[in-house]
Design brief:
The protein is globular. It has 307 residues and is mainly alpha-helical. The protein has helices at residues 22-44, 49-74, 95-112, 117-142, 183-201, 210-226, 240-259, 289-292; strands at residues 13-15, 18-20, 146-149, 156-157, 179-182, 234-235, 238-239. The protein has one domain. It contains 8 helices and 7 strands, in the order ββααααβββααββαα.
């Protein structure tokens, strides 16, 4: 049996007047690393760098808005003033909300560029996993997402120092030295395996949408399990992330095992070009010659000559 994990978290780094959070740095670096992993695969699927950059710009904005909005909805009772909702620097974001916001804001651009939603998301799936991994490193540095009391050997021994999330286990205000679940570590380890599997799966030809559906089922299932170990607001016995993940996993499993092919929605790469003629034009090469040939010119008969 290994000893419990124990270290002093680094919640903020002071650089002159600036106070930088390793948590925020981890999210930013994770997004950039995921984008870099996405580019070669997107190019292979016929999506140019310029199109990817345009999508990522919108995805970054959508991720920030979605992550905050989902957290606020789930913790609506924590805010005494509407202005507190906009104080993002005080913490409070949702990873699943970030994913949802990023995808929703990028959707209109995918359609306007005539890009297949499923090809884009398949290219992005390994990058999304990599982004989660790097982001969780930031969570581990600041000791965020600490959960219930445990005797598990990977449990985290609460330090006599500030942590990003309350380190109290099942009893609020417990003394330093209590051992709790470090759910960010579990998510970190699980997503490493997910990334390895995704990279292996994409080596073989598969129908568009398979990789992102696989990603959603694996990650959603893990969040359902992990959140039972978290200290978080619950609605009818489950966290907001668990309810969202249950719906996501159910839909994606149905598409994977019942549909077994690319869903027809979102295949915008098959739309006709904007400048395509409204009526089909006949190809002269396939038209019978008798219909295209000019009628023969009849010349008058020559006069009869007698010898």
């Amino acid at each position: 049996m290994l000893s419990y994990l124990s270290y002093t978290p680094l919640v903020h780094v002071k650089i002159g007047p600036l106070s930088i959070s390793p948590h925020g740095v981890g999210i930013a670096v994770g997004f950039l690393a995921g984008a870099r992993l996405m580019l070669p695969e997107a190019n292979r699927k016929g999506i140019s760098d310029e199109q990817v950059y345009a999508l990522l710009t919108r995805a970054a904005i959508g991720a920030i808005v979605g992550a905050r909005l989902a957290y606020v909805i789930n913790h609506a009772g924590d805010y005494s003033s509407p202005l507190e909702i906009f104080k993002v620097w005080h913490g409070g974001i949702s990873l699943l909300g970030g994913f949802a916001g990023a995808i929703l804001l990028a959707l209109p651009k995918m359609r306007s560029e005539r890009l297949s939603f499923w090809k884009v998301m398949d290219a992005a799936a390994p990058g999304m996993a990599l982004g989660v991994i790097i982001g969780r490193i930031g969570d581990l540095i600041v000791a965020d997402h600490l959960g219930k009391s445990t005797t598990f050997f990977l449990g985290y021994r609460c330090p006599d120092a500030a942590t990003a999330s309350p380190c109290h286990g099942s009893t609020v205000g417990a003394a330093a030295g209590a051992v709790v679940h470090q759910t960010a570590l579990y998510d970190f380890i699980s997503t490493i395996f997910l990334l390895i599997v995704l990279l292996r799966l994409r080596k073989k030809p598969r129908y568009d949408g398979f990789l992102i559906l696989f990603f959603a089922v694996w990650y959603g299932a893990m969040r359902i399990i992990e959140d039972f170990l978290r200290e978080d607001v619950r609605h009818f016995g489950l966290t907001g992330s668990q309810w969202s993940s249950i719906v996501l996993v159910a839909v994606c499993l149905a598409l994977l095992f019942l549909y077994r092919r690319t869903p027809p929605v979102g295949q915008w790469d098959k739309l006709p070009p904007r400048d395509a003629p409204s009526e089909p034009v006949e190809d002269e090469s396939t038209t019978p010659a008798s219909l295209t040939a000019e009628p023969p010119t009849l010349s008058p008969p020559e006069p009869h000559q007698e010898e």
